[in-house]
């Protein structure tokens, strides 16, 4: 299988073509970026730096990555209703094939600043990232009527 090499802020990444996730319509704010991959940041021993953060790395711009998390790690489970169009866009055959992730953000985060505290982190539950793990097609679903839908972590996590 062909590999794509990227020089990211995490170092050089080798992306197997079978690991590429296509977002046909892009992601809001990144509409022109349609090829992405997921990865955990690794330490020098090759171990994940955090079991909480998953990075969504653009293959169209190596300077763009989004920190994501699995909301169920913090006791939040989605019950989503997808439109027929969304099911078709994702080529979804079974609800078991969908991976739901949410974007992570931090209040007052500056690159290279002091370590983040759990209470400074939040996730946007009003716009989950949906990925069909079989077809490797993704989308961001904007949930309407979910004003101020952010969950602040009130548990100790390692970042």
Automatic annotation (TrEMBL):
SUPFAM superfamilies: BH3618-like. Keywords: Bacterial flagellum biogenesis, Chaperone, Cytoplasm, Translation regulation. Pfam families: FliW (PF02623). The keyword Cytoplasm applies. GO terms for biological process: bacterial-type flagellum assembly; regulation of translation. Its main location: cytoplasm. It is found in: Cytoplasm. One of its GO terms (cellular component) is cytoplasm. Belongs to the FliW family. Acts as an anti-CsrA protein, binds CsrA and prevents it from repressing translation of its target genes, one of which is flagellin. Binds to flagellin and participates in the assembly of the flagellum. Interacts with translational regulator CsrA and flagellin(s). This is Flagellar assembly factor FliW. It comes from Gallionella capsiferriformans (strain ES-2). The gene is fliW.
């Amino acid at each position: 299988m062909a590999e794509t090499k990227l020089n990211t802020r995490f170092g050089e990444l080798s992306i197997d073509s079978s690991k590429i996730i296509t977002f046909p319509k892009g992601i809001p704010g990144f509409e022109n970026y349609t090829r992405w991959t997921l990865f955990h940041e690794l330490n020098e021993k090759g171990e994940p730096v955090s079991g909480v953060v998953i990075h969504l790395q653009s293959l169209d711009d190596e300077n763009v990555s989004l920190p994501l998390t699995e909301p169920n790690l913090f006791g939040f489970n989605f019950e989503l209703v997808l439109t027929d169009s969304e099911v078709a866009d994702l080529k979804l055959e079974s609800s078991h094939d969908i991976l739901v992730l949410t974007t992570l953000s931090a209040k007052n985060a500056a690159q290279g600043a002091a370590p983040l505290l759990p209470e400074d982190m939040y996730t946007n539950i009003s716009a989950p990232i949906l990925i069909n793990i079989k077809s490797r097609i993704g989308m961001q679903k904007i949930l309407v009527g979910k004003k101020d839908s952010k969950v602040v972590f009130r548990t100790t996590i390692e970042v």
